[in-house]
Amino acid sequence: YIKEAVKQSLKRLQTDYIDLYQLHGGTIDDPIDETIEAFEELVEEGVIRYYGISSIRPNVIKEYAKKSNIVSVMMQYSLLDRRPEEWFSLLEEQSISVVARGPLTKGLLTEKPLSQASAAIQKNGYLQYSFEELQQIIPSLKKVAYDLSLTELSIQYILKHSAVSSVVFGASSVDQLKENIAAANARSLSDQEVKALTYYTKPSVYETHRFK
Predict the structure, then answer these.
(1) Which secondary structure element, helix H or strand E, spans residue 21, and what is its range?
(2) In what order do the strands lie in the sheet with 72-76?
(3) Measured at the alpha carbon of residue 210, what is the angle toward residues 89 and 84, in degrees to the nearest 5?
(4) Residues with Cβ < 8 Å from 171, sequence gap 6 or more?
(5) Residue 132 burial by CB count (10 A; 0-12/13-18/19+): exposed, middle or buried?
């Protein structure tokens, strides 16, 4: 299926090869060895140059890091979702880069007022944060670097980590796109500022999909 999907992608993209092809999702019960074999064959054929995975499951990440030649792992990562940090050392040791998605946490880490958050977030909060906690934490984050917007602060926090190679963000308008690009080009954070940001936010790990 993977090999056929790649061929269809080449047709739609009107190109002879894909620079980076990533497997989305997957569990430890999937035929990982066969999947890796398919990717390796595609590399040998010159159809793809490199391959990676998009996963937040620790057992899946560890298996691919151990058995394959992946160059990237895409993970949801932000100041309000620091779970990927647990794996940065392992991935760096294997020369595997992190592609961070969701850096602005559904708009919570932007200049948009928290009062405009979705009804679901206002009711249930976000991950391990209640809405009341968000109301306390987000203003504290803004105070860490007065010369940076919250968007700039949030993206620069992610880019500060050497394991992260790139940040993937969504934008619903040209203005948002320009704002995010500017944030990626803002000044880097100091070690003291990073320490302050980690003080205000919660370190956490993935509780499920772990080897026992």
Answers:
(1) strand 18-24
(2) 18-24, 48-54, 72-76, 97-101, 164-168
(3) 35
(4) 177, 180
(5) exposed
SS3 content of the chain, % helix, strand, coil (to 5): 50, 15, 35
DSSP three-state, residue 84: helix
pLDDT digits (tens, 9 = 90+) for 133-161: 999 999 999 999 999 999 999 999 999 99
Measure the CA–CA gap between 80 and 83, rounded to whole angstroms.
Answer: 9
Q: How far is CA 49 from CA 15, 17, 45, 66, 96, in A?
A: 13, 7, 9, 20, 15
Q: CA 25 to CA 59: how far, in whole Å? A: 12
Chain mean position to CA 107: 15
Q: Which of 64, 37, 69 is nearest to 51 (CA)?
A: 69
Angle at the Cα of 74 from the Cα atoms of 72 and 79, rounded to 5 degrees: 125
Angle ∠(204,60,91) on CA atoms, nearest 5:
65
Note the pLDDT tens digit of each residue in 76-101: 999 999 999 998 999 999 999 999 99
Residue 110: pLDDT band (50, 70, 90) is confident
pLDDT value of position 142: 92
